[in-house]
Amino acid sequence: MLCFHAQQAAEKAVKAVLVCCGIAPPKTHNVERLIRLLPATMQRTPDLLASAALSDYASLTRYPGLKEPVLESDYREALRLAGAVVEWAAEIIGG
User: Fold this and answer.
1) Residues 29, 11 contacting (CB under 8 angstroms)
2) Integer CA distances (angstroms), 20 to 25, 48, 91, in order
3) Is residue 75 a contact partner of residue 2, using CB atoms and an 8 Å limit?
4) Number of H helices, E strands in the chain
5) At residue 63, what are phi and psi to the nearest 5 degrees?
6) Nearby residues of 51 by Cβ (< 8 Å), 6 or more positions away
């Protein structure tokens, strides 16, 4: 569940940037799809692009047995990526 919450933080941060840009975000948990909707001129950091991998946590971690167990190192990386995306979004929205 911890990785699910990291995914949600990244997803909501990207959706907030889309709204700030006047783009209505679709109902999706796919972070990569949301990133593709960002304006072409907007900077995409390596961590933002890597956060697309968090999409798997939107459903798999809520349904035990569908995937390998999540390791602590996986969680720490998910948390790092989510934090980086939230900071990226805050800079755009606040700037």
Assistant:
1) yes
2) 10, 17, 12
3) yes
4) 4, 0
5) -125, 85
6) 10, 14, 31, 35, 81, 82, 84, 85
Helices (H), 43-94: 46-50, 72-94
Separation between Cα atoms, residue 2 and residue 30, nearest integer Å = 17
Average pLDDT of the residues in 74-78 = 95
Question: Regarding the domain delimited by 2-94, which CATH topology (the fold level of the hierarchy) does it fall under?
Answer: Four Helix Bundle (Hemerythrin (Met), subunit A) (1.20.120)
Residues 68, 74, 79, 82: what is their CA dihedral angle, to the nearest 10 degrees? -70
| pLDDT per residue as tens digits for the range 43-70 | 999 999 999 999 989 876 566 666 677 8
Q: Which residue has the tokens 């998910």?
A: 78
Answer whether 57's CB lies under 8 Å from 4's CB: yes
